[in-house]
């Protein structure tokens, strides 16, 4: 017990100078703060934030609608009609041409097998049950088989021209709208410029505000006509390329059919 008390007394003796020095240091610090002049920090200048106007992004449909109205519906409506009618004809042609596509190799194999097994009548049943211009040409050629190979060739050539005309049906209308749309746009351009010059003449002064509306109408109608022509031209070129492909298939398949018929006649099957 005595040892414990002695240890406490020794610890107190050791830490008393430390506490005394700490108190003196704190007192000196407080005195220095009182004696030092108080320097006021400048108040932070208020930050000025510019008001930003955040506009909602307009959709493509809204932009087109605004430009249509700004370009004057009187001039923009005929251009829009050309686009609608041209697209309608082009889509109809694309669907028809795709449905007219036939696997000629497969059809020729079926016709040859039918000639070998069932004769000309069996081959006619195969071609009649197959859709497309190639099958129709084959049917016409097989119907003239009894008249000789020369009549078969003439029949194929004649009916091939008919089928080609059917495939090209409607392309003239797409071509018309391709030519008509830019013309209508240019007409709006000319009328808009005439209106701008009339405004200048009436005011007797050249001011941007006077001619801006007329020039804007002129430019918008021109752009609209050119866009319509470009869109329809793409569809027109696709249709022409598809027709060329079908015509080439018809010609190649017709030559092969004649060779098959000659072979069938020579073998006497």
From TrEMBL:
Topology of this chain in the membrane: Multi-pass membrane protein
Keywords, ordered alphabetically: Cell membrane, Membrane, Protein transport, Signal, Transmembrane, Transmembrane helix, Transport
Spans through the membrane: 75-95, 171-197, 217-236
Name assigned to this protein: MotA/TolQ/ExbB proton channel family protein
UniProt similarity note: Belongs to the exbB/tolQ family.
Coiled-coil ranges per UniProt: none
Taxonomic classification: Bacteria, Pseudomonadati, Bacteroidota, Cytophagia, Cytophagales
Segments forming domain MotA/TolQ/ExbB proton channel: 131-251
Main location: membrane
Cell location: Cell membrane; Membrane
Species of origin: Algoriphagus pacificus
Record Pfam families: MotA_ExbB
Superkingdom per UniProt: Bacteria
InterPro entries in alphabetical order: ExbB/TolQ_transport (IPR050790), MotA_ExbB_proton_chnl (IPR002898)
Signal peptide: 1-22
């Amino acid at each position: 017990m005595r040892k414990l008390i002695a240890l406490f007394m020794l610890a107190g003796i050791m830490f008393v100078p430390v506490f005394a020095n700490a108190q003196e240091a704190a007192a000196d610090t407080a005195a220095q703060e009182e004696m030092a002049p108080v320097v006021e920090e400048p108040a932070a200048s208020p930050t000025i934030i510019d008001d930003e106007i955040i506009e909602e992004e307009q959709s493509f449909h809204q932009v087109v609608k605004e430009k249509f109205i700004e370009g004057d519906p009187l001039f923009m409506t005929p251009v829009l009609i050309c686009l609608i009618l041209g697209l309608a004809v082009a889509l109809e042609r694309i669907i028809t041409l795709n449905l007219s596509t036939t696997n000629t190799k497969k059809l020729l194999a079926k016709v040859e097998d039918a000639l070998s097994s069932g004769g000309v009548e069996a081959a006619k049943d195969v071609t009649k049950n197959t859709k497309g211009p190639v099958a129709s040409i084959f049917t016409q050629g097989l119907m003239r088989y009894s008249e000789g190979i020369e009549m078969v060739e003439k029949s194929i050539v004649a009916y091939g021209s008919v089928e080609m005309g059917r495939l090209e049906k409607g392309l003239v209308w797409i071509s018309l709208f391709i030519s008509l749309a830019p013309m209508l746009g240019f007409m709006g351009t000319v009328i808009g410029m005439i209106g701008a010059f009339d405004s200048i003449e009436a005011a007797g002064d050249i001011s941007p505000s006077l001619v801006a509306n007329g020039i804007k109408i002129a430019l918008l109608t021109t752009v609209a006509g050119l866009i319509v022509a470009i869109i329809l031209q793409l569809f027109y070129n696709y249709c022409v390329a598809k027709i060329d492909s079908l015509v080439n298939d018809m010609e190649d398949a017709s030559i092969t059919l004649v060779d098959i018929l000659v072979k069938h006649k020579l073998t006497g099957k």
